[in-house]
Amino acid sequence: TPVRCGQAIRLTHLGTGRNLHSHRFTSPLSGNQEVSAFGEAGEGDYLDDWTVVCSGTYWVRDDEVRFQHTSTDVFLSVTGEQYGRPIHGQKEVHGMATSSQNNYWKVMEGIFMQPSEALQMEQYHAEL
């Protein structure tokens, strides 16, 4: 199913089954809002929901996109702060209150599904 701009989604880590989660706690490195992993096998709570912020009708694979937390309104971001442990050089992902260049995301890998014929027809439909 195509993902609409403005649609609430959950981002689930395939390896752990945990959802991208946020709540009103301060992140350890940047002092922004903490983002973590939560839940089991894709099940979690309302704090796992993110709104897809993009232009157009649908999230298009090659376009930049933002994710805004549905409960706290922060944008999923990364600014360069790095942990020393447990994984040296791993960057802190956090929530920022304002939109900026630090909260644009682009698909680099994953599962790509061809648009359905119905979606293609919708994109080119014109009233007579």
UniProtKB/TrEMBL annotation:
Q: Write the record's keywords in alphabetical order, separated by commas.
A: Repeat, Signal
* Annotated ranges, domain MIR: 1-55, 56-110
Lineage: superkingdom: Eukaryota
In terms of InterPro entries, this protein maps to:
MIR_dom_sf, MIR_motif
**UniProt key word Repeat:** yes
Its recorded name reads: Stromal cell derived factor 2
The beginning of the lineage is:
Eukaryota, Metazoa, Chordata, Craniata, Vertebrata
